[in-house]
Amino acid sequence: MFLCLLIICFGGSALLGGVYLMTYRPIADAQTAKVNQALAGVLPEFDNIPADEAYRVQVDGRSVTVYPATKSGIFAGAAVEAVTTKGFGGPITLMVGFKADGTIYNTAVISHSETPGLGDKMDPKKSDFSLQFKDKNPETFKLAVKKDGGQVDAITAATISSRAFCDAVSLAYTAFRQAAQKGGDQ
Q1: By residue range, what is the domain housing residue 145?
Q2: pTM above 0.85, yes or no
């Protein structure tokens, strides 16, 4: 009986390991493609490869990835990948693009687990919620929902998701400012 159980466990483990090896690369490639697609959508015109120049910064104990963009060797802006755990359904990962002056160029949702039909409306493909951040400078635009004294119209029946989105954008802006103060060289 011991030998039979050992063979079954070993066979199951080998099968699971084999499936992992076969799917690891396609999953990693799909994630890389998603990040590159988000970079292209949130950054002003650039001619470098921001993913190759990415670096991490610490903001309030959270690690954030910054993707600097240049055009003809001149800093054009940066994209910041920020994760917040304040979402209703769990973590929300956003890519926020900034122009060189700190104005938000665009946003993209990388991943979330929000309620379909409610919180998932933060995704630009599903509603216009994220458009209210476009071309706004967080220095003068308060990144909070109106219920909290900010300037953001929350998604109806999804205030928690809206607050989480604002938190991620605020985190991204703090990381952008921190990177800009250090000269963008990491």
Answers
A1: 41-181
A2: no
